[in-house]
Amino acid sequence: MIRQPVTSLQLPLLILTLISILMLSSRTVVAQSPASPPAAQGAASAANPVAGGAAALTVAPTTAPAAPAANSVAVQNAVPTLNSEQEARFQRLAGDLRCLVCQNQSIAESHADLAIDLKNQVRDQIAQGRTDDDVRRFMVDRYGDFVLYRPPFNARTVALWVGPFLALLLALVILVRTLSRRAGAAPPQEFDAQALAHALERLQPATVRAKDAND
Amino acid sequence: MRRALIPLLVFGLIIVVLALGLGRDPKLLPSPLIGKPVPSFALAQLHAPEQTFGPEQLKGKPWVLNVWASWCAECRNEHPLLMQWAAQKSVALVGLDYKDQSEAGKTWLARFGNPYSVTLSDLQGKVGIDLGVYGVPETFLIDAQGIIRYKHVGPLTPEVIEQKFMTLIRDPRG
Lengths: 215, 174
What we know:
- The complex is a heterodimer of chains A (215) and B (174).
- In chain A, 23% of the residues are buried.
- Chain A is rod-shaped and about 110 Å long.
- Chain A is built from eight helices and no strands.
- Chain A has helices at residues 10-32, 44-55, 84-96, 113-127, 132-143, 158-185, 193-203, 206-214.
- In chain A, 57% of the residues lie in helices and 0% in strands.
- Chain A is mostly helical.
- The longest helix of chain A is centred in the C-terminal third of the chain and has 28 residues, at 158-185.
- Chain B is 38% helix and 19% strand.
- Chain B has five helices and seven strands.
- The radius of gyration of chain B is 20 Å and the shape is elongated.
- Chain B has a single domain, classed as Glutaredoxin (3-Layer(aba) Sandwich).
- Chain B starts with a helix and ends with a helix.
- In chain B, the strands form two sheets. Chain B has a five-stranded mixed β-sheet.
- At the A-B interface, helix 1, helix 4 and helix 5 of A face helix 1 and helix 4 of B.
């Protein structure tokens, strides 16, 4: 039996499948990082941090919450006004912190009561002169690593960050070795001379054989 | 033939990992405050706003802090359990009325019953932020030394009260 070589379509398809499996599993694993449960939102959530954060930085500091419950109180007393540099820092920080109620939004985008409270907290701290790191640490101390929209890169999350790339590397290594083994594996088959002549004769078109026979 | 099974096994492994992850509730976040001292605060009492109350006043014995609000539907579901728990007098229950109007909070307690030894008013939710509250109801167990030992997010159930809270209350060494 002659083994078929890998066709030109199979290889890209295989790599594409591997990459999509890895991306899907990494999205789930993102949410599984030590301090966080799965978001179960698939690859779409990867696009949110950048797209959503850039589009929705228009929240005015003193607006009431968009959908408050009947008796809830969102008291906005003396939210400090920030200068333009502080405002830029605020927007950046607010885009970096996750809204824990609507978990696939940053607090910049979210209209939840908690998001508004946290935004006010961030404004207060910036006005008081805290650094960006101070603010992030404040939030992580109270809510855990999950409140950071981008998982931090530390000893606990290194598997999360590096894992998919390692898996891809492993897959590629296996792929290359399998392909090279397959290419070298099928030795050319040897026909004996009589079988070869017989096969060649049968391969001739019937009309030529008939013509030959009639000559 | 054997070698061809390896991708299948890897696939199966990935499926197991994904299934475990997807089975979890994304709303339940572990608290980083477990094992840390309860943040200090001084809040006005709901029924006596001129008096404040703070966690220092409860040092020496374990106590339970239940975060609730009159606008919270789930809080109504766990309320009968809290009333039962209070009736057993096994541990002090402290209520934290979170981001609620005082009148609404008082009316709610008058209507459904008040299981709390003392109820505090967190009008702006600032103490809630210090406690890492992100949704009501939430219930904390604080031990005699003032360390947060357990946090339950969502309405209480009899199993949670017994297995998570009472076990730790009876044997604080966990």
